Amino acid sequence: MVYGYKNIWKIASPILVGMVIQQLIGVTDVVFLGRVGQTELGASAIAGLYYITVYMLGVGFGIGVQILIARLNGSGHYKQIAPLFYQALGLMSGFAVAAVAVSYLLTPSVLPLLISSERVLAAAQQYLGFRVWGFVFSFAVIVFRAFYVGTVNTRVLTWSAVVMLAINVVGNYLLIFGKFGFPQMGIGGAALASVIAEAVSALFFVFYTRFRIDVRRYGLDCFSGYNPRLVRQIFSVSIWTTIQLFISFATWFFFFVAIEHLGEFELASSNVLRSISTMLYMVVGALGATASSLTANLIGKSQQKQIAPTLYRIIRLGFAIEALLCTALAFFPEAVMRIYTDDPHLIAGSVEAYYVMLGSYVTIVPAIIVFNVVIGSGRTRQAMYIELAATVIYVVNVWYVVVWLRSSLAWCWSTEYFYNLILLVISLRYLQKRRLIF
After folding, report:
1. What is the C-alpha separation between 58 and 53, in angstroms, rounded?
2. Is the pLDDT of residue 261 over 80?
3. I need a labelling partner for 263 at 20 to 30 A (CA). Which of 18, 343, 346, 361 fits?
């Protein structure tokens, strides 16, 4: 099996569209709540950070499930996918119930330690009172996404994201402001709208799978009971991707904590740059997920020799797309940053770091894609060790450059080059050692 550029983009583009729409869902929440009040806007940001932290633990688990499904799909053992899928769905449902229960038990005591304003605290508690129920549906969606990415059938991801965005926008309008006879719920309405959107998305996957997928091919028409062997297999792969993803997010958190020591200006500027970088990163994230799935499929087909050519094609495609995007953004730094802030002083003082951020994609593209090939090979524990090693070196570098030297903002953002180069070198060395690339 040879995956050319057209095949790669056909798989990656729906993932990318889904990621873009997921970002737009967050943007619509901000747009609507920004018209309610600053208290609600700030509270939703803090409460939303809690939700996304727990959600990403589920995403890490889903990556492990995706790898196992892709391996079975590549080897042609389609009937074995259903038992794996149903075990994962049961486990994720249990995790969701636990996440809701723990949230209700801990939120009343933990939030007051993090939030000093009584008004913001009350709004955040109101938001989470509804929002945590989204775990029940979003964790199920993660398993469905793992199935479709693992079986290289990603078109449905676009449609599910579109449905979710539409429901979220309509729900926000009706429930936040109390339109057309619906109760005016304010920030609670935003949370409830998101939960409803996730529930509809989960139902969409259920019906699409039932009526548009050959369920007999994958054995999905036969539900299998609890299988402890499969559960152990899922945990043996997924636990490491979950820890690895947590380490990755903790790295960003440390960087911003260090930047905060430089001052409010540097922190505000870095927040703007992070938002711009997030939009660029979605291309890399989609291609990385594609690299992981195709690697697992090729190993399942016993075609390890095709991994290296496929990897190089994905990297070249990533460079081509990011070069176009970064070049376009490089010509209009002030206009781009003005989307996020109207402060002329903040914009002028961020231009140099802005170009450093754009240039970092020279290292981000190959590093993330190669690292995802390591994950796709099924060596998730080794991938976690690679992430941990790169993170430790990165943290030391950030502490030295940002905290100790108190360097300029541009030099602080240059630490991204260092992290990605370390991740790239270690990942390449590992793949060469395993003879997956030559």
Report:
1. 9
2. no
3. 361
Query: How many residues are present in the chain?
Result: 438
Q: Are 391 and 369 in contact (CB under 8 A)?
A: no
* Torsion sign over Cα 160, 162, 168, 171: negative
387, 243 in Cβ contact below 8 A? no
Q: How many CB atoms lie within 10 A of CB 249?
A: 14
CB 182 within 8 A of CB 191: no
Q: Do 307 and 373 meet the contact criterion of CB atoms below 8 Å apart?
A: yes
Please state, in angstroms and as integers, the Cα–Cα distance from residue 347 to each residue in 16, 278, 280, 411, following that order. Answer: 29, 18, 19, 17
The whole-model pTM stands at 0.84
Mean pLDDT for 296-315 is: 92
Q: Which two tokens stand for residue 82?
A: 């259903």
Residue 332 is encoded by which pair of tokens? 């209009």
d(CA 412, CA 258): 10
**Could you give phi then psi for residue 119, rounded to 5 degrees?**
-65, -45
∠ at Cα 222 (202, 210), nearest 5°? 35
Closest CA to 266 of 276, 277, 256: 256
Residue 291 has pLDDT above 90, yes or no: yes
Yes or no: say if 377 and 296 are a contact pair by the CB < 8 Å rule: yes
Query: Buried (b) or exposed (e) across 278-292, using 16+ Cβ within 10 A?
Result: eebbbbbbbbbbbbb
DSSP 312-367: HHHHHHHHHHHHHHHHHHHT-HHHHHHTT---HHHHHHHHHHHHHHHHTHHHHHHH
Angle between helices 415-433 and 361-376 (to 10 degrees): 30
203: DSSP letter: H
Structure tokens at 291: 């690299």
CA distance 274 to 403: 19
Kindly tell me if the per-residue pLDDT of 313 is higher than 90.
yes
